[in-house]
Design brief:
The complex is a heterodimer of chains A (72) and B (454). Chain A has strands at residues 3-6, 12-16, 23-24, 29-35, 38-43, 48-53, 67-71. Chain A has 72 residues and is mainly beta. The chains are: A mainly beta (72), B alpha+beta (454).
């Protein structure tokens, strides 16, 4: 099942933990935003293979709802 | 001293300004690109830009702050809390620039910033510290089992360079010890560039109680009683109060005595806080750390003692005679509670909620209700900084009255445009366990369903 993971809130990209081709399971952390001095992890909600990553570490000021990771 | 630059933003910048005015001093604000229109800038006598919106490009850049101080003709710097407040190099640089640093000596800041050194200093002042081991460098596990047996299980494996709950792992079973130590060493190396760890006794059911101290820098020091800060989420405080409810008889006195002994030993200068963890089961208390700054929750103490802690910091720094500040002149009355109002969503694991305050009406302030904020109607709360949008501090003749006053004041907040934890705060204060004084650091997790259900 294809999944598109978008940012929940605006913030800076702190860590990106996956790259295209990686196998992920539901619940795996894909990337972590830094928002208001707090780490906000974003997780996969399905199993699959990462097909695209649209954000990069240290990217600043990413809006809420930005498409970040695609899983197929 | 005529002109004080406040190296901070938000509510604490506005708060420090009030004490400056009371003492006949001018206040200079600094602001990042995101804060040009902020309340603390509007309230100041002068304001200086210090760089870009991210704190590491502005509020954390010592050089920019010092340049702003020179440009504005300030002769003193108050750091507030956070940012550069506990950076000994910055404190030194302020003095080297010929300005007055409103804070403890740089050496004290440095000593207390090093966890292991702080533990040693506390121990030498006769302050109880948690059983802990020597350090184990990266890959070093020799003598680990014996060290763990000395500390006792359950224990925490802690990264020496860690902090804020990061780099900490719990071990219950001796069979897991080596594996966890090795994993923590390698994680700490990656995260902090220092793979050194140590073992520390884990207090299963803990309360967090701290003592406010004030030292004159000459070996004299007093305490201003305790604050209970057990109600936390993600290792950050949400509700603080004084006195601490239901401590074993005499414990707060013993803690205060220990804190003052440490402050005297260090010839501590200014406002500081000695934090303790209280073991709810064994009824022992242990030194956690000493914070060498004014703290977020200082108004709790101001409400019960009637003292202006920031004003005291400034007066000491400018050389006022404060020799009349003796322990017998300090008294506390009634009960005070602080609620931290955060832009966050408790129902979504406290997800931060930046946004614009399309409505921001505050409770009316009075003898018993104090609101400290750095924001107004229409202001934007950005993702760059802390999520705290206001502090509500209420006093009552006793704890029940302080709770009732807090609940009424929380009801009077009208906030629109972003999600806040106000409902969560109300549920916390109204909870039977809170009313009964059954506070501990696991409170929010233990009562999560009660506190976050709509």
């Amino acid at each position: 099942m294809a999944e598109q993971v978008s940012t929940q809130v605006p913030g800076n990209v702190w860590k990106v933990l996956v790259k295209p081709g990686d196998a992920v399971k539901s619940g795996d952390t894909l990337f972590i935003l830094e928002v208001m001095k707090t780490e906000v992890p974003h997780e996969a909600s399905s199993d699959g293979i990462v097909s695209a990553v649209h954000i990069q570490e240290e990217q600043e000021g990413v809006d809420a709802g930005t498409l970040a990771v695609e899983i197929e | 001293m005529k002109r004080v630059l406040i190296a901070n933003r938000g509510e604490i910048a506005c708060r420090v300004m009030r004490s400056c005015r009371d003492l006949g001093l001018e206040a200079v604000a600094v602001y990042s690109e995101a804060d040009a229109e902020a309340l603390h800038v509007a309230l100041a006598d002068a304001a200086e830009p210090v760089g870009g919106a991210p704190a590491k490009e502005s509020y954390l850049v010592a050089e920019n702050i010092l340049t702003a101080a020179k440009r504005s003709g300030a002769d003193a710097i108050h750091p507030g809390y956070g940012f550069l407040a506990e950076n000994p190099r910055f404190a030194e640089a302020v003095a080297e620039a010929g300005l007055t640093w409103i804070g403890p000596r740089p050496k004290t800041i440095e000593d207390m910033g090093d966890k292991e050194r702080a533990r040693l200093l506390a121990r030498s002042a006769g302050v109880p510290v948690l059983p802990g081991s020597a350090r184990f460098g990266p890959g070093d596990t020799e003598g680990l089992d014996a060290a763990a047996a000395d500390v006792g299980y359950p224990l925490l494996v802690k990264a020496s360079a860690g902090g804020g709950g990061i780099g900490m792992r719990r071990v219950d079973d001796p069979a897991d010890l080596e594996k966890v130590v090795t994993a923590t060493q390698s994680m700490a190396e990656k995260s902090f560039g220092d793979g050194t760890v140590y073992l520390e006794r884990l207090v299963a059911k803990a309360r967090h109680v701290e003592i406010q101290v004030f030292g004159l820098g000459n070996g004299e020091a007093v305490h201003l009683f305790e604050r209970d800060c057990s109600i936390q989420r993600r290792f950050q405080k949400i509700v603080e109060e004084s006195p601490a409810p239901g401590l074993p008889a005499g414990m707060s006195d013993r803690m205060a005595e220990a804190a003052v002994a440490l402050a005297k030993q260090e010839r501590y200068r200014g406002a500081g806080t000695v934090e303790f963890v209280v073991d709810d089961e064994s009824e022992d208390f242990y030194f956690l750390e000493m914070n060498t700054r004014i703290q977020v929750e200082h108004p709790v103490t101001e409400m019960t003692t009637g003292r202006d802690l920031v004003g005291m910091q400034i007066r000491l720094a400018r050389g006022d005679d404060m020799s009349d500040l003796t322990q017998d002149t300090i008294a506390a009355e009634g009960h005070a509670i602080e609620c931290r109002v955060y832009a966050e969503n408790p129902a979504k694991m406290f997800l931060p909620s930046p946004g614009t305050l399309t409505r921001f009406d505050l409770p009316t302030e009075s003898e018993t209700v104090r609101v400290d904020t750095g924001f107004r109607n229409g202001d934007t709360i950005t993702f760059h900084y802390d999520p705290m949008i206001a502090k509500l501090v209420c006093r009552g003749g006793d704890r029940n009255e302080a709770i009732a006053n807090s609940l009424a004041a929380l009801d009077a907040f009208e906030v629109e445009g972003l999600t806040t934890n106000i409902e969560f705060l109300k549920k916390t204060l109204a909870h039977d366990a809170f009313r009964a004084g059954e506070v501990h650091t696991g409170f929010v997790d233990a009562h999560k369903a009660d506190l976050t259900e709509l």
